[in-house]
Design a protein that fits this description.
The complex is a heterodimer of chains A (290) and B (653). With 290 residues, chain A is an alpha/beta fold. Chain A has eight helices and eleven strands. The relative contact order of chain B is 0.07. The chains are: A alpha/beta (290), B mainly alpha (653).
Chain lengths: 290, 653
């Protein structure tokens, strides 16, 4: 059985560290290049099916620059057989529609029995490519898959699909078919070191527009990102500035982000110790005199 | 002394003994040769000196006497007593062939003294044997098993002593006058035998005991190689070939890039020294008695593990039979916290911890088989380069509001403060890293941090067995540290300290690494930091394994606490070298603890029982574990777990 898995390389980060909206407020050095975690689940599922059947081929397809090469090869090390990168400098900004169109061309060349992809990518949360891809290929499509089983006739799959809140839907469909997988379907394996080192040596096959027989003018996005709006910075809760101050001081306080810092200090220790401390403080500040 | 026929029989006996002895010795050495090569043949002088101190100075067992384990005295007496008897057996055999070859050949004075000492030694040995038997079979301390093998040895040694006296007594009776004037037991026995009317048959008694004595000696010398008493010979070599590396610094894998030498799956994957360890084991059980995993009811028993491996080595024909899970189970090897308590007490320097890591390396790197909760740790280290999976962009979050610069901004610093993942990301430990920083800055020291450029030092990956991931982190960290020309590093976490100080040099990272307790103690000593007020209360210090037992830093933290007026420093029953692990070392921090009792509960109970107000420690893992442990106790005592620096910070403000 030939299984194709579409995997996406993403740049991921928890925090906003940069100042430039064009780079998504991520400072260049903070970018963490990795494979979309949902796609890793897809890779694992494909490998498990291959292992269960005892035969087959798992082909990974990724679109775009090699920005996370080690992470891609790590997927190979998990047990995939081939890794194909589709890349062409003529591809401009791609939307889900054009992405799926290019991927569909590649998948047509491979003629797989099953196609897997992740539910969505955690960088833009579009979640559309899988569905469009199935449309281009004319295959059945089931999203949010959490369980899979090949029926004995080997012509159809029985699939369980997460409906949310723990509900599950059981569906059956003929293969070839396309599934997008949801968390919980499996736990991706950790590659062994010999496999990892072998995968680092493996060559990535590179296909461009010509290999796929794409006409560049065919690739017309259906949607266009006009603007990205970023959330306003979270409102910082501060206590109101001291009303006794004049306006200028109050504005300064607000700009500083809070009231004047408390200068006081908490005393600790036995009562005697604390009393001695208070006396010492009063003496040092000239409030009491000997 | 003997007639010709007797001499021939004696010769045949000697040759038979030599034959069986060397056949077994050859077999044992051949088994050692299965092991991988390892260079332990350097620094002969240093090694010889070490062996003399350990074996003849008795340090190997006496080192445990300070820990309330008095068996060491008995062992030393037995060792010296029996050594004297070994010399006497040479004379014994020699005089069988030619009468004059007795101790008197070295002068009458020597003869008298020799037999005097021999008689005294015999009594001492008998006393020790009786004590040992009472201990093992009646008192039954936890660590000793009342095995048949141990019994056989006790009986044999006891009977050797008895036979010595019987032979001596009948000889004196037979010859009519003492052959050595001061052999008081022999003389007394000869009088006794005379009283019993055995004078007439003394000759036949003498010869039968003489022969019996020799036969037992010969038999015992062969039995030694078949029993745990192999340690008599093997421990000598084991101590000689002991590791000269820093304790706890794991050896790198040379052919990691070729995916070769990834830990141990079969007995032949061990180095020959690790196999020699197995011969050297005396089965004394001190390792198990001190192992936090064993004490808390985990399946790991270091003594049994060594014993099973030895049995496996001796019985497996070609050494290709996989060790895990038949000989050592996965539960056993994941239970180890790498606290080195076993290594500390082992009289014959068995390298337990490295062995556990060898197994883990095999499981993790060749099999990718490890507790599933560790997977996320590995992924975090791979992707985000820290143990918490938050990424470099959040590493400096704890510094918000603090006047601290990174090496990227300036390089005019006296020291680099290596915060570590726990100090950077864990909420409770972030407070400590702030306090340490403020304390050091308070002394006017120019200190910088790496900020985003800092990554996990690699300790957890390495202890869990992921050497590849560790090496990746090490190379990146060393690259960064060299890039900024860092010379002096002060760390918060003892694990970072150990890794940077003792393990990075093997990968080409030479830095001066200091733990903050030592550094701050130095600041206090030379007056850069002043204690301004007393702090009344009682504090007990919990020694982190990687600071104390592994790096020998016991005094610096205690000196800091003692330097605070009115503060009373208490000690737990298990402290310093005997300190009990908090349960988080060796990557256990990221594993579930589902078997047995929780180690941190045991330790916190011990801390609470000292009735101290504060439990101080100086390790982020220990802090987390002890805090959790104290919270889990049903107790009315109010105990606060603090980092040492937090206590100090209260009095230097």
């Amino acid at each position: 059985m030939k299984i194709a898995v579409c995997i996406k390389q993403i740049q991921y980060i928890y925090a906003r560290t940069g100042r430039d909206p064009k780079t998504h407020f991520i400072a260049e050095e903070d970018r963490i290049r990795m494979i979309n975690p949902y796609d890793e689940l897809a890779v694992e599922e494909a490998i498990r099916i291959k292992e269960r059947l005892g035969e087959g081929e798992v082909i990974l397809i990724t679109l775009g620059d090699l920005m996370a090469e080690r992470a891609l090869k790590r997927c190979l090390a998990m047990g995939a057989d081939r890794l194909i990168q589709i890349h062409d400098p003529y591809f401009k900004k791609l939307d889900p529609w054009t992405t799926s169109m290019i991927l569909a061309k590649a998948i047509e060349r491979l003629t797989p029995d099953l196609i897997f992809c992740g539910k969505e990518a955690v960088d833009d949360h579009n979640g559309q490519v899988g569905a469009y891809l199935a449309e281009w290929l004319g295959y059945p499509y089931i999203s949010c898959v959490v369980g899979l089983e090949l029926l004995p006739n080997k012509k159809a799959m029985r699939v369980s699909r997460a409906l949310g809140r723990g509900d599950k839907e059981i569906l059956e469909c003929l293969i070839p078919a396309l599934f997008s997988v949801e968390k919980g379907i499996n736990e991706p394996r950790y590659p062994t070191l010999p496999n990892l080192l072998k995968a680092f040596e493996q060559k990535i096959e590179c296909w461009d527009g010509k290999t796929l027989g794409l006409q560049m003018d065919e690739i017309q996005p259906m949607t266009e990102v006009v603007e990205i709006q970023y959330p306003r910075p979270r409102v910082k809760r501060i206590s109101a500035p001291d009303g006794h101050l004049n306006g200028f001081e109050r504005v300064l306080n607000l700009l500083a982000g809070s009231k004047m810092e408390k200068k006081g200090r908490l005393l600790e220790g036995s009562p005697e110790q604390m009393a001695a401390e208070i006396v010492r403080f009063l003496r040092e500040n000239g409030i009491i005199k000997d | 002394m003997l007639p010709l026929g007797g001499k021939i029989i004696l010769l045949i006996l000697i040759l038979m003994t030599l034959f069986f002895f060397s056949r077994r010795a050859y077999f044992l050495i051949r088994l050692l040769q299965q092991g991988k090569p390892e260079n332990r043949f350097n620094h002969w002088g240093k090694r010889l000196k070490y062996v003399l101190v350990q074996v003849f100075g008795g340090r190997c067992t006496l080192k445990n006497v300070t820990r309330g384990d008095y068996a060491g005295f008995g062992h030393l007496l037995l060792f010296y007593g029996f050594s004297l008897f070994l010399i006497s057996y040479l004379f014994h055999i020699a005089e069988g062939f030619y009468e004059k070859l007795s101790p008197s050949i070295l002068g009458h004075g020597f003869n008298h003294l020799f037999f005097l000492f021999l008689d005294i030694a015999g009594l001492v040995v008998i006393a020790v044997i009786l004590w040992a038997a009472v201990r093992r079979y009646l008192i039954r301390p936890n660590r000793l098993d009342p095995t048949l093998e141990a019994g056989i040895i006790l009986v044999v040694v006891f009977s050797l002593m008895l036979l010595h006296y019987l032979t001596e007594g009948f000889r004196i009776l037979m010859e009519g006058r003492p052959f050595a004037e001061w052999s008081f037991v022999g003389i007394a026995l000869s009088h006794l035998f005379e009283e019993l009317g055995l004078k007439g048959s003394s000759r036949s008694f003498f010869f039968s005991f003489w022969w019996l004595h020799l036969i037992v000696v010969f038999g015992f010398s062969i039995y030694v190689l078949y029993s745990k008493h192999l340690h008599i010979l093997a421990s000598f070599f084991n101590l000689f070939f002991h590791s000269l590396e820093h304790r706890g610094a794991l050896p790198p894998i040379s052919e990691l890039d070729k995916a070769k030498g990834l830990g141990v799956s079969k007995i032949e994957d061990f180095s020959w020294k690790k196999l020699l360890d197995l011969y050297a084991c005396t089965e004394c059980g001190r390792c198990t008695a001190n192992c936090p995993a064993s004490i808390s009811g985990k399946p790991l028993r270091p003594r049994d593990l060594i014993y099973h491996l030895k049995a496996h080595l001796l019985t497996s024909k070609d050494g290709r039979f996989p060790i895990i899970p038949q000989v050592v189970t996965e539960d056993e090897l994941w239970a180890c916290t790498t606290c080195h308590a076993c290594v500390e007490v082992c009289p014959v320097d068995i390298e337990h911890v490295e062995r556990m890591i060898d197994f883990r390396r095999h499981l993790v790197m060749s099999q990718a088989d490890f507790p599933s909760e560790v997977k996320s740790l590995f992924r975090n280290l791979e992707i985000f380069r820290d143990t918490h999976g938050k990424g470099p962009s959040l590493r400096t979050e704890w510094t918000i509001g603090l006047p601290i610069k990174t090496f990227r901004e300036s390089q005019q610093f006296e020291i680099l403060y290596w915060v570590g993942c726990e100090g950077s990301f864990h909420d409770r430990n972030k407070e400590v890293s702030k306090v340490i920083l403020k304390t050091i800055q308070g002394a006017g020291v120019k200190v910088g941090i790496l900020g985003k450029d800092e990554m996990c030092c690699g300790d957890p990956a390495r202890r869990i067995g992921n050497e590849y991931l560790f090496r990746e982190l090490v190379h990146r960290n060393i690259g960064i540290l060299n890039h900024y020309g860092v010379k002096k590093i002060v760390t918060y976490c003892p694990h970072c300290y150990h890794t940077l100080k003792n393990e990075y040099p093997l990968f080409g990272g030479q830095f001066e690494v200091i733990h903050y307790t030592v550094y701050i103690n130095e600041l206090l000593r030379n007056g850069r930091l002043k204690i301004r007020r007393p702090l009344e209360g009682q504090v007990v210090f919990h020694d982190p394994c990687y600071l104390g037992r592994i790096n020998g830093i016991y005094e610096a933290p205690r000196e800091i606490l003692k330097s605070i007026p009115a503060l009373n420093l208490k000690e737990m029953p298990l402290s310093k070298e005997r300190s009990f692990c908090c349960g988080a070392g060796g990557g256990r921090m990221w594993m579930h603890e589902s078997q047995g009792e929780r180690i941190n509960q045991i330790r916190s109970r011990e801390a609470i029982e000292t009735k101290a107000d504060w439990v101080a420690t100086s390790c982020p893992y220990c802090l987390t574990m002890m805090e959790d442990g104290v919270r889990g106790q049903e107790t009315k005592e109010q105990v606060n777990v603090l980092d040492l620096s937090e206590i100090l910070y209260r009095v230097i403000l």
